[in-house]
Amino acid sequence: RIVYVNGSYLPEEDAKISIFDRGFLMADGVYEVTSVLDGKLLDFGGHAARLERSLAELDMACPVTMDELLAIHRELLEKNAIIDGMVYLQITRGSAGDRDFAFPDPAVVPSSIVLFTQAKPGLADNPAAKTGIRVITVPDIRWGRRDIKTVQLLYPSMGKMMAKKAGVDDAWMVEDGFVTEGTSNNAYIVKGNKIITRQLGTEILHGITRAAVLRFAREAQMEVEERSFTVDEAKTADEAFITSASAFVMPVVEIDGAALGNGAPGKVAVRLREIYLDESRKSAI
Ligand code: PMP
């Protein structure tokens, strides 16, 4: 695989980052994941805009322009012959050499940028979309700025492991009795025909897929309510689903052992998945 690191395209085994990089020592970095279908990037503009916001919130400099970033994405897709898959991008604050809690001066120490691709043949035909996934709930003990897409993913990884240990697919995180989001996705329930998902704030990541799905739902005259919901409300909902750049819209059929509806993917989730895939393929670049 050919990867990109600080201006160079290299075989992955030749790509190097300093052990003093603050991304490695302090999780001082941000990332984005953009899906690829038929060789094209889904919602690159949305991911680029969120990246700029994450960087600005952390006073981190961007080593490339957004036009350059798009060109790097495309170059990697071509070099690695990616049809379906994803591009991972990470920017970390670099390092002045020694380990130090204070940020280095960005005029002196450039941030590091790394991109790589992962091929995922048949990404849009994930069989899990036919059966739906099962989730457990776990306490949300992450930091308070979940709206910044940082590489601090230890707790979400632990959440996935708790789910795995419980024999299910994923975990929804809960704070003060309300569901925040999934370990790597936004969470939704459906009551009647109404789609309910937590309002934006610092408690959740502002999903690029979330924004697109809510827009498509409203355009299709579906009712959307952005508010917090409890685990009990979720367990007695008609349907549930998650969204993320790589899972698209994925039905959830069980929460903490309670089956939703008849235990099969709900009609709203199935329809939204179709709309999302159709529309995002159309606007892919
Ligand atoms: N919430 C969290 C915590 C995530 O990690 C992700 C995926 N990166 C999402 C939501 C979904 O965001 P997106 O639709 O932009 O992939």
UniProtKB/TrEMBL annotation:
Tell me the Gene Ontology biological-process terms attached to this UniProt entry.
Answer: amino acid biosynthetic process; branched-chain amino acid biosynthetic process
* Top-level division of the source organism's lineage: Bacteria
Instruction: Please provide, alphabetically and separated by semicolons, the GO molecular function terms listed in this UniProt record.
Output: branched-chain-amino-acid transaminase activity
Any keyword Translocase?
no
Annotated Gene Ontology cellular component terms: cytosol
The keyword Membrane is assigned to this record: no
Q: Which UniProt keywords apply?
A: Amino-acid biosynthesis, Aminotransferase, Branched-chain amino acid biosynthesis, Pyridoxal phosphate, Transferase
Pfam families, alphabetically? Aminotran_4
The record's function comment reads: Acts on leucine, isoleucine and valine.
Biological pathway: Amino-acid biosynthesis; L-leucine biosynthesis; L-leucine from 3-methyl-2-oxobutanoate: step 4/4; Amino-acid biosynthesis; L-valine biosynthesis; L-valine from pyruvate: step 4/4; Amino-acid biosynthesis; L-isoleucine biosynthesis; L-isoleucine from 2-oxobutanoate: step 4/4
UniProt protein name? Probable branched-chain-amino-acid aminotransferase
